[in-house]
Automatic annotation (TrEMBL):
SMART domains, alphabetized: FeoA, HTH_DTXR
Origin species: Victivallis vadensis
Cellular location(s): Cytoplasm
Predominant subcellular localization, coarse grouping: cytoplasm
Function description: In the presence of manganese, represses expression of mntH and mntS. Up-regulates expression of mntP.
Record's protein name: Transcriptional regulator MntR
């Protein structure tokens, strides 16, 4: 009888669900040294028939070595694909948690949803941006700005967390906070720019780095650099 060689892998479309299976199998093998179908079902919270069907598809695609009543093994292609998916997950979760300040649970859930539609190049660019903002000394002012901006999210559905130059000329707003990037906050406070004050932008002069505004009826002249770090509530007045 002639011996047949290994079956040639079929070209299959890896859906988000199938990528989740590869990711789960890799995690189980890393944690326990093996991945049984029952463990896969428990980890993914799915029923055994779903696991059997998914593993059959992955086996045909050449991503797993699947035989009934034996632990599931990843092939070389399966290991490579699982690592790509897991890397994207790590990058996305880190981006959401460390840079955007989202809670760990929400960051993980968001990463699970998005990892399947983001390619490796996009994930790498997000990693570069995150690393630069978090670690470069010349991004310290931006870190302060983002931290303060995130503080104002969810203020009873009102438009808050806006900085002074974004206020339309002639409109009123209430000062919420003088940001950490302002070098001499006492100088602004002396002009009446304190928390709770009513402010109106009269002129923006970017060519000379100035912002002319009116604070509780008095004219105030300040630099745009400072104005960009004065947090206001446009609906507060």
């Amino acid at each position: 009888m002639l011996k047949t060689g290994p079956k040639k892998a079929e070209a299959i479309q890896l859906s988000a669900s199938l990528e989740d299976y590869l990711e789960t199998i890799a995690a189980l093998i890393e944690e326990h040294g093996h991945a049984h179908t029952s463990d896969i079902a428990e980890r993914m919270k799915v029923k055994m028939p779903s696991v059997t069907y998914a593993l059959g598809t992955l086996s045909r695609g050449g991503y797993v070595d699947y035989r009934p009543n034996q632990p599931v093994m990843l092939t070389g292609a399966g290991i490579a694909m699982a690592e790509r998916v897991r890397r994207k997950h790590r990058v996305l979760e880190d981006f959401f948690h460390e840079l955007l300040g989202l809670p760990a649970g929400i960051s993980g859930e968001a990463a699970c949803r998005i990892e399947h539609v983001v390619d490796g190049n996009t994930a790498s660019r997000m990693q570069i941006i995150s690393g630069a903002i978090r670690h470069r000394n010349d991004c310290r002012a931006l870190r302060n700005y983002l931290e303060e901006a995130f503080e104002f999210l969810g203020y009873a559905e009102r438009e808050v967390g806006t900085v002074l130059p974004a206020l339309p000329v002639g409109k009123h707003a209430t000062v919420l906070k003088l940001g950490a990037n302002i070098a001499e906050p006492q100088r602004l406070e002396a002009q009446g720019l304190t928390v709770g004050a009513t402010v109106t932008v009269e002129r923006l002069l970017p060519e000379v780095n100035r912002c002319v505004c009116r604070v509780d009826g008095r004219e105030c002249d300040l630099s745009l650099d400072d104005a960009e770090n004065i947090w206001i509530d446009p609906a507060g007045s």
